[in-house]
Sequence to fold (533 residues):
Amino acid sequence: MQHFEAIIIGAGLTGIYQLHRLVEMGMSVTLVEGADDLGGTWYHNRYPGCRFDSESYTYGYSFSQELLDEWDWSEHFAPQPETLSYLNHVAERFDLRRHMRFGAKVESAVYNEAENQWELTLGSSEKLSCRYLLTAIGVLSAPVMPRIEGTERFKGPSFHTYHWPQEPVDLEGKRIAIIGTGATAVQLIPVVAEQAQRLVIFQRRPNWCAPLHNRQITTEEMADIRTRYDEIFEQCRRTPGGFIHMSDRRKLDEVPEDERRAFFEDLYASSGFRIWLGNFRDVLMDEAANEEFTEFVANKIRERVDDPDVAEKLIPTDHGFGTRRVPMETGYYEAYNRENVELIDLNETPIECITEQGVRTSAEDYDVDIIVYATGFDAMTGAFDRIEFVGEDGRTLREKWADGPITYLGLQSAGFPNLLVLAGPQSGSGFTNFGRGVEEAVDWTTELLDYLRQNGYTRIETTEAFEEQWQGHVQEMYDLLLLGKVKSWFTGFNSNIEGRDKMRLVAYNGGAPRYRKILAGVVENGYEGFRLS
Ligand code: NAP
Fold:
């Protein structure tokens, strides 16, 4: 069994940077990745329309001036192929590929107490061992098919968006069904609508979507961005979400009505998440403020969709704006004005099954050539559940987290020594502008590993008492926000997984500055909450 000081699981944004830091430190390290190449999210999600909704230049790594100097982003919200090229460029530039193993899916990772090491079994049955096991397995990387009878029966091509084929899919003149209307579908639908002969969209719950307002970055603009990188990253450090958008310090009712209205219009005309994260500070916390802004967005949908019945179907009635992830769109609502696009409201006519020819609802059979499942992920914990992590006394992480994740700082779970989570449930990194969040998590973890090495420690473990404290804090942060009351992956709901119908504390909503301060305090107090030996 080949042994390493550290093994990183996952070759996405997080794993690539962690690998770079550990190689730099001179650690013996390897990175294992189940897919055939690197890129994580940006390797898998190849559906048409897939792109950032973080501003590109706020998402990329900040750690290397050379990298910042040489990489040009072409659009404010770069499309998937460009981000994948970027990650390939980083891996090549820092000569990281030679430390990566592809097609190396981790089936199990078992902690061997006597040897104080983790023993991994890969899909190929190969075994590897390490002292420190670092997970960079993503928070939206366990795709979930809907619980609908007959999905295997359909005769034509059908796939989950996460498994969109690598070879181009010919959509031209085809009849296509898309199931789901989350952030993924909202990017996909306008693109498919332009090519399909007929597009039928099956919607269970609509979302509050907002215009992305993407555009090209000119050469001059890129040169300007490059001179402002320090300022841009500093701005991201200040905001809870790690984006450049900071909420307006005013409360909604502190502002006169006409000024408020002008502000709303300005938000709707702005690009990216400003409409969500740069809104009045009480819009995501106070029912009345939220209701007023929600009504404004509802009217925008009514203005953009020609058929009033369709418009009403696209307006959510079970939650307010921004209390679920806001899908950012380009021509989404206008897609419904096309002759070839049809919206099926599953609340009126639920899907009964998938047939050989297409989708059967309680009202009608929709015969199609291709079915696309844009049905989302077993978010935050799914990727962990899909690996058999066995800790002290043979206890699995899956058992421990059966009713929801239990962690200290989102970084460790008691009973799983030397297992370090770089981005996962309840961590600050997992719930921010991902590039910013994971870079900080990797830096913190690298310093921790260096500290252990310098001080002759070989084991780090958290305790249940500190976990309990952290659960309390995570709960408190949920209580501050309206999103804590709404069913979505933010609160751990997934109707396609048995038993996922109650609230789970999956996300850390306290924001990046607060989380950073907490981590700094932990270090100052000699890694408080961790037992080092
Ligand atoms: P999602 O937001 O979970 O949406 C899944 C959709 O499928 C929902 O509309 C859901 O309806 C529907 N659905 C699930 N099961 C169904 C069933 N059995 N029958 C009918 N409909 C069903 O997943 P997603 O759109 O893939 O997005 C997930 C997250 O990925 C986003 O929130 C975002 O954080 C991230 N993402 C990011 C980007 C980006 O940065 N550019 C792009 C895409 C996605 P219900 O709402 O009724 O459950």
Q: What stands out?
A: The longest helix spans residues 434-454. The mean pLDDT is 97. The pocket of NAP is lined by residues 51-53, 140, 146-148, 179-185, 187, 204-205, 325, 346, 374-377, 489, 495-496 (CB under 6 Å).
